[in-house]
UniProtKB/TrEMBL annotation:
GO terms of molecular function: carbohydrate binding
PANTHER family the record matches: ABC TRANSPORTER PERIPLASMIC-BINDING PROTEIN YPHF, D-XYLOSE-BINDING PERIPLASMIC PROTEIN
Residue ranges constituting the Periplasmic binding protein domain according to the UniProt record: 63-308
Protein's name according to its UniProt entry: Monosaccharide ABC transporter substrate-binding protein, CUT2 family
Highest taxon of source: Bacteria
Cited InterPro entries: Bact_Solute-Bind_Prot2, Peripla_BP_I, SBP_2_dom
Any single Gene Ontology cellular-component annotation: outer membrane-bounded periplasmic space
Subcellular location: Cell envelope
Family to which this protein belongs: Belongs to the bacterial solute-binding protein 2 family.
């Protein structure tokens, strides 16, 4: 059902539940944070961020992502979700699979177990659509984050938290132009992953030079290294390598050395190792979409809805990026990266 302005009505399910007011939850959380059993010091969550615990009904939220094993980006997503869950008196059930059919099955398992809310990524929206519809039919509130910004509304979802991937790509392309790049190699580590393909499309649109796309398989990093090395050896005119994830950027550093290339490496997304690489000058800059914040907001928004029927964004995406990180500002986030929250 749509509102008069065409936006989907958020969470039209008929589920009934005991609801404690948000004001009580916030007041209790503040009280606990100020007067804890540690003598007034707020209790710390696993992320190292202090927090009290909301006095709202215990709820269970499933977070299902398209995480690729070994990609540290998802550690930041999960830490953000765990931090919000600890604050909100939420039992968090995290699961993931990079293959869309398997991810859809995980969503169905969460529905079958009658969780109170679901946070999901839509890297391959068409494949995930039946699972999203099943959650809606089961009257389970669902939010989308990280992937699927252009598709979540069409699937009847009211809230999205993440980066505008097209805008991020265009911004990267414009930065390449400003940096004086002439030929860029944009590396897609998973074919068919809409966010990654949108990033490269944005780079092409925003960059005034030439862009070539190289597809690799992120599940086999030795193969990625060899493929990038071969490409740089074959085409010495490539002066910039655009990675779409921190592990690929770190691999490209070795490929550059193997090939004897002078190409500059830039990337989307960060992790602690990538922060060190920027400080060392091995990577010139990165686009940060704040994955910790995405995980946090996805869980916290469901808590707000369950306890006070709040929605965030007014039917529009809540953007967490893009922003640039380079040597001019890397020191301001380095300590947080080492703590595992940036």
């Amino acid at each position: 059902m749509d509102t008069h302005d065409g936006r989907p009505v958020p969470f039209t399910g008929k589920r009934t539940r005991r609801v404690t007011t948000l004001a009580l939850g916030i007041a209790t959380a503040v009280l606990l944070a100020g007067c804890s059993s540690t003598g007034g010091k707020p209790e710390a969550t696993g992320s190292g961020m202090a927090s009290g615990t909301a006095d709202t009904p215990r709820a269970t939220i499933a977070m299902i992502t398209h995480e690729v094993p070994g990609d540290t980006f998802w550690d930041l997503i999960r830490k953000g979700a765990e931090t919000a869950a600890a604050k909100d008196n939420i039992e968090l059930r995290y699961s993931s699979d990079p293959e869309a059919p398997n991810q859809a099955n995980l969503v169905q398992s969460a529905i079958d177990s009658r969780v109170d809310g679901i946070a999901v990524t839509l890297a391959k929206p068409d494949a995930m659509s039946p699972a999203v519809r099943a959650a809606t039919d089961a009257d389970i509130p669902l939010v989308v984050f990280n992937g699927g910004m252009d598709q979540y509304k069409a699937q009847g979802v009211a809230q999205y938290f993440g980066q505008d991937e097209k805008l991020a790509g265009i911004s990267a392309g414009q930065r390449l132009t400003a940096d004086g790049a002439k030929k860029a190699l944009c590396i897609i580590q998973e074919q068919g992953q809409i966010a990654l393909e949108t990033r490269c499309a944005g780079v092409i649109e925003g960059f005034k030079g030439q862009t070539e796309i190289l597809n690799v398989n992120s599940k086999d990093l030795p193969s990625v290294e060899a493929t990038i090395t071969a490409k740089l050896q074959q085409d010495p005119s490539i002066d910039h390598v655009v990675a779409l994830g921190a592990p690929i950027a770190m691999t490209a550093i070795q490929s550059k050395a193997n090939a004897g290339s002078g190409a500059t490496i830039v990337t989307f997304d960060t992790n602690a190792a990538l922060v060190d690489a920027i400080k060392a000058g091995d990577v010139k800059w990165a686009i940060d979409q704040q994955p910790f914040l995405q995980g946090y907001l996805a869980v916290d928004s469901l808590w707000l809805y369950l306890n006070n029927r709040n929605t965030i964004g007014g039917g529009m995406p809540t953007l967490t990026g893009p922003s640039f990180i380079d040597q001019s500002n890397i020191d301001s986030i380095a300590e947080y990266a080492k703590a595992g929250t940036r």
